[in-house]
């Protein structure tokens, strides 16, 4: 019960990593608000978790409506009197149009960067004054391994995540005196619906070839790192960009090929 008495807000939380964070943080005693566009679906999930004895509630947030970030935070504070922990989980990209520098339309590129950056900037900007007034808080940004490992595609997504990594450090620097910490979690390939629906089996196999822990991560494993940053276990940790990708990109670039050669000997 490391989060007993804490109020948490998780964006984009009806599935995948966001939902895993909701469940994990609620199990640690927090009152968790699900920021969601599909309010009815979120209420169904919250009801199921409430039956299990967890405190889960729903607040409306639509990433395409920037004003909803402020109203989302204000609703949580209105209901609970405070907000202790903010998990900025939203992130999007369309792999069919978010390609490389030679072929990606500028409007598609800047649209991806804008919506992903806004999801962190606006929600954090709205929450920080309330956290400061309450003596502090923790902001956890769900970034991506793609923010530190350049790819041959998804130029908008990678650029937005790299910017989120730097924004994380800026928030940590600028808000430390208010006892507000800010850290980022960088998932690698994670077994979510988004990955399974948008990436081919061939691509997944190739990616995992270069991942020392040769499997996709689980949303619950990402949520475990989020819990660390949400709890007082990380009370003296801020501005950190933590790779949770099974070691992807850590060893020599020819790691995958070397492993294959070794296995054939």
TrEMBL record:
Pfam families membership: adh_short_C2 (PF13561)
Record organism: Cellulosilyticum lentocellum (strain ATCC 49066 / DSM 5427 / NCIMB 11756 / RHM5) (Clostridium lentocellum)
EC assignment: 1.1.1.100
Family to which this protein belongs: Belongs to the short-chain dehydrogenases/reductases (SDR) family.
Matches recorded under Gene3D superfamilies: NAD(P)-binding Rossmann-like Domain (3.40.50.720)
Transmembrane segments: none
Protein origin, superkingdom: Bacteria
Cited InterPro entries: NAD(P)-bd_dom_sf, Sc_DH/Rdtase_CS, SDR, SDR_fam
Example GO biological process: bile acid metabolic process
Protein name: 3-oxoacyl-(Acyl-carrier-protein) reductase
